[in-house]
Structure formats: C-alpha cells, structure tokens
Structure prediction request, 838 residues.
Amino acid sequence: MAELLRVENLVKTYAAPGGFFGRRRATALGGVSIAVARGETLGLVGESGSGKSTLGRCILGLTRPDSGAILFEGADVQGLSGRRLADFRRRVQPVFQDPFGSLDPRWPVGRSVREALDCFGIGSNSDRARRVADLFARVGLDPVFAKRLPSQLSGGQRQRVAIAAALASEPELIVADEPVSALDMSVQAQILNLFMDLKRDLGLAALFITHDLAVVAHVSDAVAVMQQGRIVETGSADAVIDAPSHAYTKALIAAVPRPRPAFRGG
Amino acid sequence: MTVAATEQRPGARTRESNRLIRIGGGLIAALIVIAVAAPLLAPHDPEAVEVSRVLGAPDLAHPFGSDVLGRDVLSRVIFGLRASLAVSIAAVLGSFVVAVPLGLAAGYFGRWTDSAISRLLDLILVFPAMLLAVAFIAVLGPGSSIAALAIAVIYLPILARVMRASTLIVSRNDYVSGARARGASHWRAIVQHVAPNALGPAVVQASVLAAFALQLEAGLSFLGLGTQPPTPSLGGMLADGREVLVQAPWVEIFPGLAIVIAVLGFTFLGEGLRRALDPRGVAE
Amino acid sequence: MTAPLAFDDVRVRFGAAEAVAGVSLALEAGEIFGIVGESGSGKSTLANAVMGLLPGAATVSGSIRVDGREMVGLDEASLRTLRGRSVSMIFQDPTASLDPTWGVGDQIAETIRAHGLGSAREARTRAIALMDEVGIARAAERYRDVPHRFSGGQRQRIVIAAALANDPKLLIADEPTTALDVTIQAQVLELIDRLRREHGTTVLLITHDLGVVQMVCDRVGVMYRGRLLEVAATADLFERPSHPYTRALIAARPAAAKRGARLPVIPREWSVESLEARESEGAEAADG
Prediction:
C-alpha cells in the first residue's frame, strides 16, 4: 500500500501553569512517529492526556508542533501557504467528537456542509447545491435536513452532517477525534458502520483517535497505542489487540469491561 | 443525560426576557424619538430667556415650569435628552466599534497579539473613570463631543475584555477549527463563525454601559465639563437647579426623572438581552 | 425483610412529558443493581427521584421506599436528614461534587459533622481512615489538599469516601465512571464493589455502558422511554436477553461483533435517534 501520511518525531510542549516565566513546560508529544497508508484506517488509542488529540490537531494544521515532520505524500506540510496549503487542507479533513460543538449553531447545517465547497471553490454555484444534497444522501440523511439548525437534529444526525461536511472536499484522509464517544450505543453502531462504508466505497484513509479499545479494534487495520506523549506499541489491529507486547497495552486491554466472575461477588 | 430532567420550562424564561427587552427597548425608542423630534415637540425655544417667568411654577403653557432664567423646563428637558442621549449612545457605539475587533483579535489569535492588546487596555483601566474623563477634558477642552470621546475611551477596555472572553470560548469550538480545515481563512473564520457567536455578551454589556454613560455625561455636564451652556443637557440642568431646589423643585425634578427613565430603559434592555442570550439560561 | 430500595409504579412527569412511566422494582440488600439505558430513557430521573433532587417542575407519583420509608412527598427538611446518612449519591463529575477551595479531608469530615455524628476530632480521624480505605496514599498528609491537587480518579475516590462516611444503607451512583479513563474506571468500579461488600451497602448503579454493567452488577434493569423493559441477573441478560431492544443493544457493541464486520443496528422503532428527532421536531413546532 502506498504511504499517504507519515509523521516523524513530532514534539509539542505547552507552557505549564505554575512555572516561573513560563519556563516549565508540559510535554504533549514527546517524539511521535506514525504512518498511514492510502485507504488504511489507523486506530490511535490512548487515555486522556496521552497527546492523541494534540497529534490529530497537528496533522490538521490546527496546532503548530515544536519540531518534527508531517509528510503528506512525502512532502512536508509545515510552512505551506497559499494554494498549496489550501490543497493540503482539502485532502485532509477532520471529524470531531462533539457533534454539538462541530457545527455553527447559527447556520443551517446545509450551509456548514457547503462551506468547504465555497472556500475551496469546488464546482459552480448550482453544482454546489446538488453536491450538498448528494453528500447528505451519502451519509444517510434526507437532504431536507439541510435547512435545519444543529439544535433541531439528534446527536447522531449532527455527527452525520459533520461527516458530510468533512467529505465535501473529497479528502483522502479523515482525522476523526473520538467521533462516536458522545453518542448513544444504538447510534454509535450506525456511525461506525458509516465509517466502514466510506472506507470501502471511497477508499478513504483515516486516523481514528479514540480511548475505546473495542471501537479501535473493530474499525482499524492498524493500531498505535499512545501513553504520555509517546507511541508505546504499534502494529496490525489483530497483533496489538490479541497479542499485546507492551505493559501499558496489556493494562488497557485488561481494563476493558468484561464479565469477571472472580470479581463479582454474589 | 436525561433531557427532560435538565430542561426547565424554557418558555417562561423567554417570556420574561422578552418582556424586559420590550419595556427597555420601548423606553429607549420613545426617548430617541423625542430627542430626534425635539424641535417639533418642544413647545418653546429651550434657550429663550423670559424674565417675567423666572422660576415660574408649572402651569398649562409650561407644564414643567420655568428655570432661573425663565426658560421653559419641558422644552429644555426635551432638548437636553437630545444632547445626553447623543453623547451616551455615540460614546458606547464608538467604544463598541473599536472594542469588538480588538477583543476578537486578542481572543482569537492569543499569544503576543493578546498580550499586546491586553496590556494596552490595562493601561486605560488603571485610572478611575471620572479622573480619566476630567483629564481628557483638561487637555482637549470641554464640550459634548469631547465628553463622548472620553466616555468611549473609558469603556473601551471593559467592552474589549468582554469580547475577548467570549471570543476565547467560541474560538475553542470545533466548528471554528472545522471551518479552518474546510479551507476558511482566519478572516472568514472570525467574521463568519466567531464574531456572530461571540457578540452577544458585548451587546449586553454595551446596553448596560449606555446607562452608565448617560450618568457619566450628566456628571460631566453637572461639573460644567460636558455639554456647554446655553445648549441644554440633563446634567447641566441638574447643576442649574441645585441652588433653587427648595424654591423651585421642578427645575431639578424633571431632568432628574428623565435621567432615571433613560437609565432604567438601558438597564432593562441590557438585563433582558442578557437573559435571552445566556446559553444556560440560569440567571444568577 | 424490607428491601433497601423499592419502587412501586413510579411516574415522573415534566408537564406533558412522562420521563419515568411506571417503574416497579425492589433491590436486594447488598447487591449492585445496574440500570442501563440510552439518553432519554429516564434512568437519571429515576435515580434523582429517590433523593428528591428533581427540579421543581417535576411531579412524582407512586411509591419509592428506602428501607421501608416512603420518600415520595417527603418534605425538604426530612430529605436533608436522610441524604448522606441513609442514602448517598455520587455523580459523573467528581469535580462538581467537591468544593474547590476546601481541603478534601474537611469535606469528608463535614458530611459526618452535618449529621451530628461525633466530635470534630472524631470526624477528622474517621475522614482520614476513609481516605485511606478508598486508596488515597498518605491520607493524613493530604487531608488539607484541595481537590485540584488530585487526579480525576482520586477525586471520585474522595467523593465515594464522603458518600460512605455515615455508612449509608444505600448508595446511588449515577454514571460514576463515565468521565474517567478506562484503566481508572476499572479501579473505581473495583473500589465500589469492595466497599459494598465490606460495608454491606446496597448500590443502585446508573449507566449507559453495558460493559460497566457486565463488570460489577449482580442484577440489571434495562430502561427505555421511561419504562423498565426487563430485569435479569447480569449473566442471564447477556446470555439470554428476552427483550428485542436488549438483544439489539448487546449485539450493537463493537466488542461483541466480528472485527470489521457491519454492526447490527437497532431496529428503527427502538432507535433513540428517531425518538430524539421526533422530539426536536415537536419542540420546533412548539416554538413556531
């Protein structure tokens, strides 16, 4: 498989509160390297504070790393500007956790989906309206929903809209940060199915960031386990989940709720 | 989790805030109409001195009576409202127009932009409001436009801080990051997403400040530093009436009432807007 | 023997909407009973009804008995004497349950003192013992530390210590581990399990997570749209779910499915999704 994204030795630190003159710094990313092949889903799993979201934001160009390289099709994307930055942005799109926060509360959701088409100048004016309708259909929503405000949709519907907005610019990589964590169980299954459909039908690659091992195991081809700003284990999903080698991965897997008769008293 | 348990009859709250907005907005609108139409509404020339009517009590021709120089108090209140409202509204609008972009820039870009803007605003905030206004007038001379400018400068840090705070919160939303990722420039993200969602608290603050501005203008005019005689202003009239408070209370009472009504109007409007815009709807 | 907690045809209305629509259930002494449901199922409303913690707009009917004592219609003063004494409650966010400016030990001692049990000195000693019991290392030294000096998991431990300070018969835990990381979640659940065994406390555990149910609950009730669809011993529920909704919920979990396979989706008529959308349409119509 051809490599799409490669992150090399990425470092990001923040000024930590309590330090004098901002000299004390907390490490969010302590030299992280990952690679995503075209059409592949890489599951990035870790607990809060592991740096997994920071990594996602760095890849999306929303946070600037201190050092390290982010290569998209072999070319470093840091320091891009103008047309080349826009082109990179078009090809890498985010899906966030909170479907409340990821859509402008004042905009009818169709307008949010259309925003990328307008900004990237994709299609003619009349073309764009048709594309928005197609995108709604693609994520399993009736196009009449386009006129609604986010507050008039359910959580799952909002997440579908957010995914439609991400798909608008026909990206090659989706960076999804906890895309199903805020959803109800019955809705979570639907959205996970949608992700798998998109991967199959559109050949989309994804960096799927989550704390939920069961979700990661289900949707990912490869898995990277992150702890305190470092990747502690990486490999195929089967290898990492079924035969973890790192102690932290083992602890994570052991903590996944499952029936434990010894644990349950009677 | 349970939607039903956390939502408390939003209807009642909306009705309450709507009523406040209607009362406050209605009062202010009425006062603005009076101020604008002053030449049509005033029964007499507000600056016309009539010796025979010095400190004349209210009667049919002069419902609010006459002042020390025999001028018609009703006409002077109507024109005085004009000067006072003009100064306070101009001051707040001027302040708003500068404060909003400053607050947006500080809150959205953060880092050194924020530090630079915040330090600058702190500089203004160090001085007490009245002292700053008096200092301004000492340098630039008295007058209503200088008073408006002074008040605008005083309010700049207050409005800009409110704007910065709400910008900080709104900018953190994923829809702003999402817009950036969907190809929106910083400019577009700010204008289309951040500003419309962050403006609410600043609008509320501006309405509340307009009430204070009116009092500040009255105070300055009372001290003879605002609107200059013979042009009537509510604060100036208070100063004139002070000495004859016992013989001719109407000279003092009516401009005082006008100030109270205008301040109440702005306060109701601000409170109503605050309740309507407060996302949690829990008014402390 | 009277049940530590018994619901009899409990209904909670908010105006026209019925959040809890007739729940009858009796807990057994010393068990952890899980109530599992999605948003809008009424599970938290049911839990809050026990403690009289519903907003004023709610009307409760039916009977809720704690150790035989009727809670519905009880005045605020009597409820207050029961809260933290006979019944304790813990919530999802431990930070919100703790005063940020107080030492954590004092907050535990406060719960003891609030019910007039023991002197200040005794309360302090007991608070330290409790901190130690829930696994806060160097409890005496950390007595005066404010909440933000503890991690999220430690804070929830402290909240649990305060909840158990007066040895209540019943502990109601509303999504107690939802805000925590998985490794911490496992530890906190183990703690709850150990404490109820040592203290003989009965626990009503509200959760959206079938995994949590599977891990610690002895019995479980599945709630949907204000109703209890089925009640079963945990192992039985997972092996032989009797209700189609329960079956669908269990099957929809990624952990239960073959990797990479499509997940079975809950039938439309049972989906929270369609309900939510219908409700928001209703709200829209009401606004217009």
Q: What stands out?
A: Residues 248 and 266 of chain C are 5 Å apart (CA to CA). The first helix of chain C runs from residue 43 to 50. Residues 5-251 of chain C form a domain with the Rossmann fold fold (CATH 3.40.50.300).
